[in-house]
């Protein structure tokens, strides 16, 4: 593809007016058009004056480093700047006026900390390409404002400039340009462009070596360098290419990317239409939510109003009943008074002389008098004036209402794959949202995914109990199964959307828990155990130095072995561990106790090539002639690689045999975590990538007696057991 298209040609192809690219030309700090932008190590650009203001604690000796040269009355107009020579000199100088007191700033584009070093901004390149684009943008914005000739002499008025000389750093009309650049003189070779006020240096100079031009490109640091930087500077050990090669490659990439964008214009328009539909749906759904919220509160108000009316009616009925009772009691007591009817009536009855008539009337009257006398002795009001039974305790309801937060649905958490581990139990960790508002709890859901002929058959989701933190444990997972997990947050009865689903493959067998055994064959001189015995490190010690006289070229040093403190006598078991990437050589697998005693107690000559079965050749003959007398069945890892043994077909599964036949495919990248599964009853051992549960290698193993997890280390190396593997043993 053609890679010589200019920016103006790309603008025509993209049909984008230059005025529409303004947002690409705005400094992220001052929010103005870039003024002499500098390129940060993260490839973002910032105005020179903005970087200086970030670095300097005092601006007393600062100067105005930029000139906007915009239209009169423009909000971005600036006072004319000093010459570009002065700016370049100040940028590259180590003077006090631009030497920062701090050397690290946060990039306003990506928020990464940028370490500038002792020389500060003098280590940064100016982005001349961006300066040119900004200048063209300004010219397009002030199309009616012409650039005048700088050398027209009075009394004639200055003419409109037609050219600008980058060497003379001046603008000329046609006549003045011919006079100042006559043919046959060195000035005739000057570089000229269209009328401009932005004069940049012809050659980009190295900020570390001020007298050297940049002519190479460092692929590690992704910046131009000079030959001195490559020979003995900070880029001595970096991979560099020629500037022409970097120019060609980057320009081709940029051209292809732009052509790709052009070809995807219809797709972009379709996505814009989809976004417009989403905007419309968001507006409609927001209005629907408003109506539903109003309806919910209206129903709540109606319910409260009904309860209020019912309670007021009950209070009124109780009050009337009590008043009637108390008023009746008052009337009864008033009858006991001397001038009342009961006493007067009794006095009249006492005047009766006929005995039979008196007895007939006085008996009932005496009962009434006795009842009145008894009420005087034990006085009790007919009704209680207190209305305590109608006092409502609405504190809980008020608290619930106050806890109802309508500040928005919480953002969903994200499951952290690097910290989550899945065995027969799963420890799932997640990162909560950064909206700075605490959530009440989280709910984790999971389901088993079954692979069938028609695809993936998903079971129903199961939900854990409420989790008041950023992790939880899921128990009783089936072995050799695929599980999907998702989590969401709850705040004030409002649930966030679910997090993106993540899948984990459970191991083919239950986890086997053990720690390293420091009793059986452990070499304390060359192996260092952690205090918890969950990690082991190999290091060269004094014994190695003392044996140096016997170590000759071509000789082989033996592995230092260590086994687990728990053994296996039946069933299937799985364990996982992590091998440090810098490890020179580590062998992992299983060992038989019936051969360990003979192995550890028979002395062997460490300087003899027969000490280790592996001669170092890649022919695979040693693997094919695997000695059954050895107690170990091991797989080799080291230097960031995993090596598949070239064993005979009888000891390798059919699928693994196909993989291991090609020598180029025997070396695989070392997994982040390695898993081992021992099937004692079937007499087979399997090696897995513990992150994906992909079986890397399997072979037959003679299971006699008790089998132990085994590790062999040589040179610098370190092995860490997984926390889930060591948790039960550490607790015990």
TrEMBL record:
Which GO terms fall under molecular function for this chain's record? Answer: ubiquitin-protein transferase activity; zinc ion binding
What residue stretches are annotated with the B30.2/SPRY domain?
A: 494-729
The secretion signal range is none
Keywords in UniProt for this one? Coiled coil, Cytoplasm, Cytoskeleton, Metal-binding, Microtubule, Repeat, Transferase, Ubl conjugation pathway, Zinc, Zinc-finger
Q: Which residues form the B box-type domain?
A: 201-243
What residues does the RING-type domain cover?
A: 27-69
**UniProt record, GO biological process:** acrosome reaction; spindle organization
Q: Name one Pfam family in it.
A: zf-RING_UBOX
| PROSITE patterns attached to this UniProt entry | B302_SPRY, COS, FN3, ZF_BBOX, ZF_RING_1, ZF_RING_2
Q: Where is the Fibronectin type-III domain?
A: 409-509
What Gene3D superfamilies is this protein classified in?
1.20.5.170, 2.60.120.920, 4.10.830.40, Classic Zinc Finger, Immunoglobulins, Zinc/RING finger domain, C3HC4 (zinc finger)
Compartments where found = Cytoplasm, Cytoskeleton
Q: Which GO terms describe its cellular component?
A: acrosomal vesicle; microtubule
What positions does the domain COS occupy?
350-407
SMART domains assigned: BBC (SM00502), BBOX (SM00336), RING (SM00184)
Matching SUPFAM superfamilies = B-box zinc-binding domain (SSF57845), Concanavalin A-like lectins/glucanases (SSF49899), Fibronectin type III (SSF49265), RING/U-box (SSF57850)
Q: Which PANTHER family match?
A: E3 UBIQUITIN-PROTEIN LIGASE TRIM36, E3 UBIQUITIN-PROTEIN LIGASE TRIM36-RELATED
Membership in a protein family: Belongs to the TRIM/RBCC family.
Q: What is this protein called?
A: Tripartite motif containing 36
Source species taxonomy = Eukaryota, Metazoa, Chordata, Craniata, Vertebrata
């Amino acid at each position: 593809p053609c890679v010589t298209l200019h920016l103006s040609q790309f603008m025509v192809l993209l049909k984008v007016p230059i005025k529409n690219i303004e947002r690409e030309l705005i400094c992220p700090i001052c929010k103005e058009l870039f003024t002499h932008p500098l390129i940060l190590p993260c490839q973002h650009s910032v105005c020179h004056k903005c970087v200086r203001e970030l670095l300097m604690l005092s601006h007393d000796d600062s100067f105005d480093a930029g000139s906007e040269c915009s239209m009169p009355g423009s909000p971005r107009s600036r006072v004319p700047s000093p010459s570009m020579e002065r700016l370049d000199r100040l940028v590259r100088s180590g003077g006090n006026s631009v030497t920062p007191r701090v050397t690290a700033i946060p990039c306003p584009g990506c928020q990464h900390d940028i370490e500038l070093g002792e020389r500060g901004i003098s280590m940064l390149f100016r982005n001349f390409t961006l300066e040119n684009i900004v200048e063209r943008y300004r010219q397009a914005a002030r199309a009616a404002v012409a650039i005048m000739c700088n050398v027209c002499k009075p009394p004639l008025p200055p003419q409109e400039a037609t050219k600008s000389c980058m060497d003379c750093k001046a603008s000329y009309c046609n006549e003045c340009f011919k006079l100042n650049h006559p043919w046959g003189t060195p000035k005739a070779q000057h570089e000229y462009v269209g009328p401009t006020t932005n004069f940049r240096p012809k050659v980009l100079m190295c900020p570390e070596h001020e007298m050297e031009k940049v002519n190479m490109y460092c692929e590690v640091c992704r910046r131009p360098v000079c030959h001195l930087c490559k020979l003995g500077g900070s880029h001595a050990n970096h991979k560099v290419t020629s500037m022409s090669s970097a120019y060609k490659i980057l320009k081709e990439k940029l051209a292809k990317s732009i052509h790709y964008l052009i070809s995807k214009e219809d797709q972009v328009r379709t996505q814009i239409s989809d976004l417009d539909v989403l905007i419309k749906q968001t507006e409609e759904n927001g209005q629907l939510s408003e109506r539903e919220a109003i309806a919910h509160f209206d129903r709540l108000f109606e319910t409260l109003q009904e309860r209020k009316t019912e309670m007021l009616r009950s209070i009124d009925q109780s009050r009337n009943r009590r008043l009637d009772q108390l008023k009746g009691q008052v009337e009864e007591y008033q009858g006991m008074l001397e001038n009342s009817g009961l006493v007067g009536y009794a006095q009249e009855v006492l005047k009766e002389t006929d005995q039979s008539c008196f007895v007939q009337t006085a008996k009932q009257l005496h009962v009434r008098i006795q009842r009145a006398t008894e009420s005087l002795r034990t006085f009790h009001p007919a009704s209680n004036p207190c209305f305590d039974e109608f006092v409502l305790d609405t504190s809980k309801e008020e608290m619930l209402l106050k806890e109802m937060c309508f500040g928005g649905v919480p953002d969903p958490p994200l499951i952290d794959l690097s910290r989550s581990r899945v065995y027969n139990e799963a420890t799932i960790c997640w990162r909560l949202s950064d909206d700075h508002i605490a959530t009440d709890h989280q709910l984790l859901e999971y389901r088993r995914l079954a692979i069938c002929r028609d695809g993936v058959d998903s079971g129903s989701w199961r939900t854990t109990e409420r989790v008041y933190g950023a992790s939880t444990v899921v128990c009783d997972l089936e072995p050799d199964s695929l599980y999907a997990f998702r989590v969401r947050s709850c705040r004030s009865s409002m649930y966030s959307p679910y997090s993106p689903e993540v899948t984990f493959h459970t191991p083919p067998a239950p986890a086997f828990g053990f720690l390293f055994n420091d009793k059986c064959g452990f070499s304390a001189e060359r192996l260092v155990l952690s205090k918890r015995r969950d990690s082991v490190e190999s290091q060269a010690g004094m014994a190695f130095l003392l044996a140096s006289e016997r170590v000759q070229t071509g000789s082989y040093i033996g592995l230092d072995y260590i086994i687990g403190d728990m053994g296996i006598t039946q069933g299937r078991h799985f364990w996982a561990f992590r091998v440090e990437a810098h490890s020179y050589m580590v062998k992992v697998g299983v060992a038989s106790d019936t051969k360990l005693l003979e192995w550890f107690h028979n002395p062997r000559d460490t300087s003899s090539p027969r000490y280790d079965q592996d001669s170092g050749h890649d022919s695979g003959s040693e693997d094919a002639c695997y000695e059954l007398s050895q107690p170990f069945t091991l797989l080799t890892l080291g230097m960031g690689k995993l090596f598949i043994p070239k064993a005979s077909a009888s000891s390798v599964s059919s699928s693994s045999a196909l993989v291991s036949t090609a020598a180029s495919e025997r070396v695989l990248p070392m997994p982040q975590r390695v898993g081992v599964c021992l099937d004692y009853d079937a007499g087979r051992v399997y090696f897995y990538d513990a992150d994906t549960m992909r079986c890397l290698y399997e072979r037959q193993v003679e299971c006699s007696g008790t089998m132990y997890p085994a590790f062999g280390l040589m040179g610098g190396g370190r092995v860490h057991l997984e926390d889930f593997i060591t948790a039960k043993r550490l607790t015990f």
